[in-house]
Amino acid sequence: MTSNPIHGVDALLYGARLLTRRELRRFIIVPLIINLVLFIALTAIMLSQLSGLVDYLNSLLSNTPVNTEHMSWFSAAMAKAAAWLASVFHWLAWLIAIVVALLFLFVYGYLFSVITNIIAAPFNGFLAEKVEEMLTGKAPPAESLPSMVWRTLGREMRKLWYFLGWGLVILLISFITSVTVFIPAALGVLWGAWCMAIQYVDYPLDNHQRPFDELKRVLRRRKLTTLSFGGAVMLAKMVPILNIFVMPAAVAGGTALWIERLRQEGDPGTDSHSRELQRK
């Protein structure tokens, strides 16, 4: 099966539609409550920092004339030259301001995602299990509740360690290439999309206790599908209020994406009845 970016976006939308199913409603109540509480807390923190960000952007974009009245001729000439250069390259200030604003939203969305995913991991595991049963007619292997809770929390720590480790490498590369704004911005977007895909496609694999390395290997084979799904989730998580509902939709969509698009024929759990996403 070919890699197609439409499949990734479609999976997230399909996951949102699955949440309207009556049999899934009881599995999304707790994650939604967790999201709501954390949304209120993190948004309050974000708003408290917003004034400082606005002041910085205003200073970056201001075109205040230079007062050279009390300067020496040399200082006045240097000040006027600097002001002229600033006016010539004013477009760059706007570009930097846009990047800073997007980075602020990215950090907000990423922190919201990390915290909610750790707390809600066991509930997301239950949701993924029910979605798989709905699509394939088969449930993952039975497991005791304490065992599942510890396993899912351990898996979240494994993913977080992976995200932070490679995230530092991406940050270092971005710092080295910071002479141009576009390379760090592109790396940040691609890395964020990859992380979101790993986060939400992993739940069905974890329910079958499949290796984390297997997930990464399969996602690399479908790069466009993977990055489009993760990118759609990342963009949705940057939107206040909408990000409250993204997590359960991403869990359902990631589970469906794994079942219908990513795993290979012959994998455990493959079922001839699970064809709903392949309707196009």
Q: How many angstroms separate the termini?
A: 13 Å
Instruction: Give helix and strand order, one letter per element, not per position.
Output: HHHHHHHHH
- Whole-number average pLDDT? 79
Q: Let me know the largest β-sheet.
A: none
* Radius of gyration, taken over Cα atoms and rounded to an integer in Å: 23 Å
| Morphology call | elongated
**How many helical stretches?**
9
Task: Name the quaternary structure.
Answer: single chain
Q: Considering DSSP H and I runs of 4 or more, what fraction of the residues is helical?
A: over 70%
Low-pLDDT windows of residues: 268-280
The share of residues in extended strands comes to under 5%
Number of strands: 0
Q: Look at the helices and sheets and give the structural class.
A: mainly alpha
Explained architecture:
By secondary structure, the chain is mostly helical. Helix content is 78%, strand content 0%. It has helices at 5-18, 25-61, 73-88, 90-136, 145-176, 182-207, 212-221, 223-237, 242-262. The radius of gyration is 23 Å and the shape is elongated.
Q: How would you summarize the topology of this molecule?
A:
Elements: H1 5-18, H2 25-61, H3 73-88, H4 90-136, H5 145-176, H6 182-207, H7 212-221, H8 223-237, H9 242-262
Helix pairs in contact: 1-8, 1-9, 2-4, 2-9, 4-5, 4-6, 4-9, 5-6, 6-7, 6-8, 6-9, 8-9
